[in-house]
From TrEMBL:
<protein>
    <recommendedName>
        <fullName>NADP-dependent oxidoreductase domain-containing protein</fullName>
    </recommendedName>
</protein>
<feature type="domain" description="NADP-dependent oxidoreductase">
    <location>
        <begin position="27"/>
        <end position="74"/>
    </location>
</feature>
<dbReference type="InterPro" id="IPR023210">
    <property type="entry name" value="NADP_OxRdtase_dom"/>
</dbReference>
<dbReference type="Pfam" id="PF00248">
    <property type="entry name" value="Aldo_ket_red"/>
</dbReference>
<dbReference type="InterPro" id="IPR036812">
    <property type="entry name" value="NAD(P)_OxRdtase_dom_sf"/>
</dbReference>
Amino acid sequence: MGLQAVDIKNNMARRIIPSTGELLPVIGLGTSRVFDTNLNERSLNPRKEIVKALLDHGGSLIDTSPMYGKAEEV
């Protein structure tokens, strides 16, 4: 396991990237499947709430890829 730090402001556990010293949260949001959805209001609203909850609780790591279909657009 890598080095860990705790962000005092939001109590989010983070790990240090050795080559840059950057801190990344140990918990993030993966967007494959759940976010590969129709781009209409009914489908997007619940997913927007998920992203909002992540950000409201100090999260900042969102994993996305063009391989995840429409997830990257959400």
